[in-house]
Amino acid sequence: MKNDFVKEIEEALQEYSSIASDTLKKVIINAGKNAVKELKKTSPKGNYNGGGAYARSWKFKRISDAPTSIKSVVYAGNGEYRLTHLLEKGHAKRNGGRTRAFPHIAKAERNAVDAIEKELKRQL
């Protein structure tokens, strides 16, 4: 009888673990895709890169997808990754002074993390 009880608890925990990892994967993928949409809308669209090429370059990619974990990244593709830090933080000018910063990545990251936490609490 004790072995049956232990076995049932193990099965229930295994089922919950499976549901939790599937839910986590779906939530992370959804948050990543939403972050890309947000970055495409909020990224600067100046003359320095062909009138919006930087904003259009944002992508989401799943790096690895194991049974119990997922690794993903949101990134600026097409060589536009070189601009991310310069636009987010500003930079020194050649003749002195600094350029204006366009903070857009930190806000999208914060929104994605908040969305993941909120959705996981709701679904689990």
The fraction of residues in strands falls at 5-15%
- Secondary structure: number of strands: 2
Helix and strand element order: HHEEHH
Q: Output the radius of gyration.
A: 21 Å
Overall morphology: elongated
Runs with pLDDT <50, length 5+? none
Cα distance spanning the termini: 30 Å
Helix content: 55-70%
Strand order of the largest sheet: 1-2
Summarize model confidence as the mean pLDDT. 92
* Biggest beta sheet attributes: 2 strands, antiparallel
Brief summary of the model shown:
The chain is α+β, with helices and mostly antiparallel strands. It contains four helices and two strands, in the order ααββαα.
Key terms for this structure?
two-stranded antiparallel ribbon, 4 helices
Topology of helices and strands:
Layout: H1 2-42, H2 53-56, E1 58-66, E2 69-76, H3 84-89, H4 105-123
Helix pairs in contact: 1-4
Please provide a written account of the structure.
This protein is of the alpha+beta class and 124 residues long. The chain has one domain. It is built from four helices and two strands. It has helices at 2-42, 53-56, 84-89, 105-123, and strands spanning 58-66, 69-76. The protein has a two-stranded antiparallel sheet with strand order 1-2. Strand 1 and strand 2 form a beta hairpin. The chain is elongated, with a radius of gyration of 21 Å.
